[in-house]
């Protein structure tokens, strides 16, 4: 069924021992929209997004992506459904370079050989496309600033062709310059990359 809604969460409920975190939550996002979930600690923001990212299972309710009902049993299912998540605790591999992290498990190859030069060039091109030219993609990410590491994580999610990008307090570790870059990337009216939808968590 064709729909303008990229995401529909219907009647989502989730309880933990002694705590009812979510009860009958409905959340709808149209294609191209940017949403921010804000509220006090314990309001259920992270729980809702962890259900969407496949990290938690809802006790009841449904999730629809692009008009199709999906069952997100784990983060792999979520990624296959086009949902990318960037947590404050980044999932990049510290000893690998920025380029290697971006294309991890998706390395371009020449026959059976990984094309490392192409990986580096593609990474530079992607960063240049979002206005970043001062990241050395051939350096281990552990040597980059925390802000640059987060931008590496963002580009990694985009390379995986995520339709929906969830970011947990994305500006918390960014400098003013990095924050301005992030705003340009997520703005649906000016983004140089084809990001369809963004959902943010904040306090």
TrEMBL record:
Keyword ATP-binding: yes
Keywords: ATP-binding, Hydrolase, Nucleotide-binding, Repeat, Transport
Pfam families linked: ABC_tran (PF00005)
Enzyme Commission designation: 3.6.3.17
Domain ABC transporter: 7-201
Gene Ontology MF terms: ATP binding; ATP hydrolysis activity
Keyword hit for NAD: no
Name used for this protein in its record: Arabinose import ATP-binding protein AraG
Upper taxonomic lineage: Bacteria, Bacillati, Bacillota, Clostridia, Neomoorellales
Gene field: araG
